[in-house]
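hi got a favour to ask and not much time before my train. below you get a single protein, a line of residues and a line of whole numbers that encode the local backbone shape. could you go over both lines and see whether the tokens make sense for that sequence. a few lines back from you is plenty, here it is:
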Amino acid sequence: MTNKTTKRAPARFDYDALDIGAQSMKALEAAAIGIQALGRRSTEQAFELGALLEQASEHVEPGTFEKWVSQRCDISSKTARNYRAVARNLSNYRDRAVELAVSPTVLFHLASAPEEKVEAALAFAEEHDGIRVSEVKTLLADGADTPSEESFGSELADIGGLSGLRAMIDFKTKTGIAAFVESAAALVAEVTKILESKPTGKRLQKTTLIPVLEPLARTAKRSLGNVLLLDAPGDVDVRKLSENELPTASHWYKVFATLDHLGKREEWPEAKGLEDWLSQEVLPLLDWATSRTKQPEWPLANAGARPVADAVMRSGLEALGGVVRIEAPSLDPADDEDDSVDDCQPPAFLARPASATEADASNVISMVSTEVRSGLRKPAWLKPKPAEVSAD
């Protein structure tokens, strides 16, 4: 006999005990079903939940609402107040908050903050690709308009456990990415300035570019190496990357190697190719590496591709006006016994011009001749076979 476990259905909320009318009960039930359907609390769902709770609160008295939301929706009264405050006070910032994926906990802190603090928090999130609870707390504290990295680092350094370790890693990753973006932006600005100010028809001079680009490239490379090798052993030099740390065929290795070459003057191309290298490789790679779009297109997809021999031949023939076709005579005597090499006419572009003088002709060796030159004989297999005499 198999024992069956029967799940007990959740108890129905006793609307009659709290003297809630049928119309209000219908509205509260609809709100409860909508709240349960939201599932996980994303930024968008936080605003939706707050709106549903606000609508439900209009159908019951304040004391009764707390009982209903706790018993029927399994949400504490404090949490319900936080969500309602988000819906009431942050509705004007909803789109920005959703785009930045601000967590509901951060929204709870911002819901009671003045407008200028909310603007500062969202601006911080836009600049740093998000904002944490510790960061928003520091920002909202009296006398601190913007949170400092030092205060975050010292605060996180005292948090124990794996959660504290993850917070430290996330913090260092965020600051490392910000450092790389800043150094890459400075490098892009200088390269763009150099290319735009170059006189037309003149080549770039390495002697003037080296003191400007070398240090910027080295800084950007070091910042990128710190991010890429965040979890690497302590004895790994961020100035060098091997196949173990980053595959040499990967796109990010190409970015790292390009910054490495730009930081070493001896790795630069010749002066005649320097402008193309900066404009067609360095700038596109930096733009790809710092792009905020999801999965940006690799800018060097077709770079380095060599045309195959057939493509080269076709392009050359197209430049000459098309494919030249030469009809050569058959070398098989069985094809036509009456034809011989004497009857073969050379193509027009190989024939001697009719206007050529004898003096000119004496210095020209014809590639194909309609005459059988003296001393030269046809191969035996080209001569017509003699007719066989019948024995009859």
Q: What stands out?
A: Residues 50 and 87 are 5 Å apart (CA to CA).
